[in-house]
Specification:
The complex is a heterodimer of chains A (about 375) and B (about 525). With about 375 residues, chain A is an alpha+beta fold. Helices cover about 40% and strands about 15% of the residues of chain A. In chain A, a hairpin with a 2-residue loop joins strand 6 and strand 7 (about 280-290). The chains are: A alpha+beta (about 375), B alpha+beta (about 525).
Chain lengths: ~375, ~525
């Protein structure tokens, strides 16, 4: 604002002429009335009430007037600006009301319409865990192999060195499948596989020549009653490596690697002599309890539910592939050796995630599945 | 196989401080799966003594018969006066020796004994049953009546061997020899590096032609048959306490002296035995396949229709036993209560083909302790020692006389040998054990080993499971310790490869799996 110019001769200032002020006011009012949207109104607002609008500029000139003219000009400009602001507010309110009415119609939400967003899903934890285990071996260069669940008795038993009357063959109670010519159960030569081990025989026969490094996840069947710790249909994962010069130390190292990948870097395994027809030497494999790390043993103050204060968790069976199995599958046991192991996925899910009842896994209730999500 | 620690110590001089748990850990290391260690007599506290029943007064007017007894317990009660005891059992009489627990004692299950008023009298203690002492079923159906020779006032905790530890071993199907004290003792001796007193090392008379006549019609089904005869058994002779207690701890029920002795020898040596009442066998004993449809009544009173594959023991009338499974009712040993009772027995110690026994045991749904052992492999060379041991015990305990006749039919078999490179166990394990260790370990399990770079290994008769070089490798590796194997990683020749389709993507977009993927194929 310029300082009052006392020496300034009272002259007519063009911009402050009453008709000029009136024109500015009318132009502003017309512009507001013409604005048909809030955006247009905003433009008009800037043009007619902003710092560079004609009325604002006119207002600046008031200071240059002689004192007696100032009051009159000020009053004129003030009234014009008042009218402009009032009109602006009115138009603003009008346009906002219009917009709100329109939005209410345009953006109305029908809460009865079908839900169109999806929550995160969840795969069945047995699948996720099986794949997690398989991934450990795939990352090491193993291949995933599969076999049929309705299996020839030869693959399920004979190829794996179970003789027809061997007591081990009774250790597993088997579902026999009726044969195509109506041959009953045990004559048909067809069973629901009792373990994933027949995939070993299939893989060796299919691939012809070692090296064979495979991991076989899958579903197996035994005639167990369904209860908290048994189910007639369950899942196993099997590993087979056949190559030149494989040793039991390699088996031990592979097991150690697996439990470290699944349960943490300090994990280790323990082998105990056992008997399986298809491995020789054979072993039972345990892993150190990943919860108490063995500290609950002989320590009644800190019992461990996961391992029952044993310090070790039984995983499954393993061993060096029996040379008879290699021979049955067309592999020269003089040249090649191998190791294999297998264990139950349900059991691992139970102790890894504190699932107390195996039935929860098989009853098909997605409320069981959901909390596991996509990773395990 | 249930193994009482006190019995095991008879064959291996274990350090006195070794507990059942210590032995369990050692045996697990060498591959015997000791599932539990049962503590017998935990919390048991005397005085528990032998007493002699002096008087019995029948108390009237109660819902069940009750007896008020006075029992001489010697000076065990401090006064020497007869002990007054109320008792509900009835299987004893005045003059019988019984087991008395006195006030101040504690029985298993934290059962403290005190003098208390009952049925209008004060009972100063209790006359005990086997159950109350944690002994298991002794077949008496009531309180324990001891043989009369035991002195009044003797400590019964020691007499009845009430405090002990029992290892329960789950024997895998390949290791039938471990279904015997002899086999478990051998493993224990190896695990501790101690010498074994092999109970099968007995002086056995040479076979001769005047033993009970036996003819083997099927040498494949039965490659060895030893028959011995003991005469003049006292029918009233009862199994001594030590024998009953060992059977009970091993999980078998004492029945009669002859049966108990046969069971005892089976537990000790792993060789199943059968005893026939000699007066009830007619003519030569034979072994043959049954005729299709042939009928035979087994000891359990069930008449069985035989299959042509069944292996039977016969006399000139027909079958007298289903080989290795169960004897016949027609030649059963008679109890002394029955008329006459058995005084002369023929002992059969035979080796039957594992498969034949397995098949007919399954066909007739007759699982027995004997069948279990035959199926898993019995030491064929143990028949003469087992028969001798049975003879010795019957002579000792029942006052019998061993006849000099010894029948032994042996189908010729060559010893089984395996040849393998001396470093084969090293190759399997991925460890350098060296020839010396390999040979030493194989000798420990009973093998004869010859050769330098290539070993010729003759396996012991009790290890039919040792047939291939890898079987021998397992023996070496398990005895050197699975826990000492190093941990190495093989390198598969191919790199990682994708192996899965997009179920993760479908789950990300909202699917939930009620069942594992395999269920939907």
């Amino acid at each position: 604002m310029s300082a009052p110019n006392k020496s300034y001769d009272p002259v007519e200032v063009e911009a402050l002429k009453p008709e000029e002020i009136e024109r500015m006011r009318d132009e502003a009012l017309a512009a507001f009335a013409a604005a048909d949207s809030l955006d247009a109104l905003q433009e008009a607002k800037v043009a007619h009430t902003g710092g560079t609008s004609p009325l604002a500029l006119a207002n600046r000139e008031i200071g240059a007037l002689p004192p007696q003219a100032k009051a009159e000009a000020g009053k004129r400009v003030g009234m014009a600006r008042g009218a402009v602001n009032k009109a602006l507010a009115a138009r603003q309110a009008e346009l906002e009301a219009e917009r709100d009415a329109r939005v209410l119609v345009e953006e109305a939400v029908d809460v009865t319409l079908p839900y169109d967003r999806t929550a995160a899903g969840a795969r069945h934890p047995l699948t996720t865990l099986m794949e997690r285990v398989a991934d450990v071996f795939v990352a090491m260069g193993y291949e995933v192999a599969e076999g049929p669940e309705v299996e020839a008795e030869w693959f399920n038993f004979d190829a794996l060195n179970f003789t027809p009357d061997h007591p081990a063959r009774q250790m597993q109670d088997t579902f026999f499948v009726q044969g195509p010519e109506g041959k009953s159960g045990d004559e048909s030569g067809v069973v629901l596989r009792t373990h994933t081990s027949p995939v070993q025989a299939r893989a060796l026969l299919e691939r012809r020549e070692p090296p064979v490094y495979i991991v076989c996840p899958g579903r197996v069947y035994r005639t167990d009653e369904l209860d908290a710790t048994h189910t007639p249909v369950f899942h196993q994962i099997e590993l087979l490596a056949v190559d030149e010069g494989l040793t039991m130390a390699d088996l031990k190292g592979t097991l150690d690697h697996m439990v470290q990948a699944l349960f943490g870097p300090d994990m280790k395994t323990r082998l105990r002599p056992n008997y399986f027809p298809f491995t020789e030497p054979s072993a039972e494999m345990d892993m150190v309890c990943y919860v108490c790390r063995g500290e609950s043993v002989g320590n009644p103050d800190r019992p461990c539910r996961t391992c029952g204060s044993e310090g070790w968790i039984e995983l499954g069976g393993c061993g060096m592939v029996n040379p008879k199995v290699l021979t049955a599958c067309g592999v020269d046991p003089q040249k090649y050796s191998g190791f294999a192991f297998g264990f139950g996925i349900e059991r691992m899910l139970m102790f890894r995630h504190n699932v107390e009842d195996m039935r929860d896994m098989v009853e098909g209730d997605i409320r069981f599945t959901r909390p596991f999500g996509m990773e395990i | 196989m249930r193994v009482p620690l006190s019995w095991l110590r008879e064959y291996v001089d274990l350090p006195a401080t070794e507990t059942g748990r210590d032995v369990q850990a050692k045996l697990i290391e060498v591959g015997l799966e000791v599932e539990t260690v049962e503590q017998l007599g935990t919390g048991l506290k005397g005085p528990l003594v032998v007493g002699k029943v002096l008087t019995i007064e029948e108390l009237e007017g109660f819902k069940k018969p009750i007896r008020f007894c006075t029992v001489d317990v010697g000076t065990a009660n401090g006064t020497g006066e007869p002990q007054e005891i109320v008792c509900g059992a009835r299987n004893f009489a005045v003059g019988d020796k019984v087991v008395v627990v006195l006030p101040g004692a504690v029985l298993p299950g934290d059962f403290a004994i005190a003098a208390r008023k009952t049925y209008g009298k004060t009972s100063h203690g209790m006359i005990c049953s086997g159950d109350e002492l944690g002994m298991g079923d002794d077949g008496s159906g009531g309180i324990i009546v001891l043989p009369p020779e035991h002195e009044v006032g003797t400590d019964a905790i020691e007499l009845l061997e009430l405090v002990d530890e029992v290892l329960d071993i789950a024997v895998t199907p390949d290791r039938g020899y471990a279904l015997s004290m002899r086999g478990v003792a051998r493993e224990t001796a190896i695990a501790y590096g101690l010498p074994l007193r092999d109970p099968a090392l007995l002086d056995v008379p040479a076979p001769n032609s005047f033993g009970y006549p036996v003819q083997i019609g099927d040498p494949l089904g039965c490659d060895r048959f030893t028959a011995r005869t003991v005469t003049g058994l006292r029918p009233e002779a009862r199994s001594p306490i030590w024998l009953k207690r060992r059977l009970q701890k091993a999980g078998m029920r004492p029945i009669s002296l002859t049966v108990d002795v046969a069971n005892y020898v089976m537990l000790e040596l792993g060789q199943p035995l059968h005893t026939y009442d000699r007066s009830r066998i007619q003519g030569t004993i034979g072994v043959r396949r049954a005729e299709q449809g042939e009928k035979f009544t087994t000891l359990d009173g069930v008449q069985r229709v035989l299959d042509a594959e069944d292996l039977v023991i016969t006399d000139e009338r027909g079958p007298i036993g289903l080989a290795g499974v169960m004897g016949g009712a027609n030649t059963e040993i008679a109890d002394h209560d029955a008329e006459g009772g058995t005084t002369d027995v023929v002992i059969e110690a035979a080796h039957f083909d594992a498969l034949s026994v397995a098949r007919h045991a399954r066909r007739h749904k007759l699982g027995s302790e004997a069948a279990k052992r035959y199926e898993r492999g019995v030491d064929p060379q143990a028949t003469s020692a087992a028969a001798q041991r049975t003879v010795d015990l019957l002579v000792l305990l029942a006052g019998g006389t061993a006849e000099t006749g010894v029948t032994e039919i042996i189908a010729p078999t060559a010893p089984r040998t395996i040849t393998m490179p001396a470093d084969h166990p090293d190759q399997v394990a991925g460890v350098t054990y060296g020839r010396e260790t390999v040979v030493r370990r194989l000798q420990q399990v009973g093998c004869d080993v010859y050769g330098q770079d290539d070993l010729t290994v003759t396996v012991p008769s009790w290890r039919p499971d040792l047939a291939e070089p890898n079987d021998l490798a397992e023996e070496v590796i398990r005895l050197e310790g699975y826990e000492n194997l190093p941990s190495t990683l093989p390198k598969p020749p191919r790199g990682p490869r994708p192996h899965r389709a997009g179920s993760d993507c479908t789950a990300a977009s909202g699917a939930r799996w009620p069942a594992p993927d395999t269920w939907r194929r």
